[in-house]
Amino acid sequence: MSIYLIGFMGAGKTTVGRILADRLNQPFVDLDDYIADQAGLSVPEIFEQFGEGHFRQLELQAIQASLDQPGVIATGGGCVETPAVCQLLSQADRVYYLQADFDALYQRIQQDTETIRPLAQPGQEAATKARYLARQARYQEAGGQTINTDLMTPDQVAEWIINDLERRDHHG
Fold first, then answer.
1. pTM of the entire structure?
2. Which residue has the higher pLDDT, 44 or 172?
3. Per UniProt, where does substrate bind (predicted)?
4. CATH number, domain with residue 58
5. Domain range for residue 128?
6. φ and ψ at 8, to 5 degrees?
7. Is 11 annotated as a binding residue?
8. Is 73 part of a structural domain of the chain?
């Protein structure tokens, strides 16, 4: 069973995904890391050398390959920019949209000095917010459960998902 975590950058997809995979004893895949490993380049290098369109194509291929694989998959924040990805995710059974207030997300993004985010460089708050607002409907289109994470820790989000999975298993 594949469990997909979607949401804007900084929503906690990777952090929650690792916790969830550990608790469910499932493999964990961060799609950005997977794509970088396959390409032999970092995500910023892929963007710089080949453009966002090429990266989105690699992302689509990675999601297609993951559909029949068990595990917890943290998607890239922009995966919903590709209509074919939204369509694939809308057909997947276990998709969770980690939703959070923009200001909280932006603060997390700025505090995370280990992750280079090509689409959220310092001084680009207005552009990042516009991207956040534009993607909200796309995350909804991708289907699944929406979890507002503003007042939840990553552990609490993982627990919420586990409870939801157990409910689904017991109620068909």
1. 0.91
2. 44
3. 32, 56, 77, 135
4. 3.40.50.300
5. 2-149
6. -70, 160
7. yes
8. yes
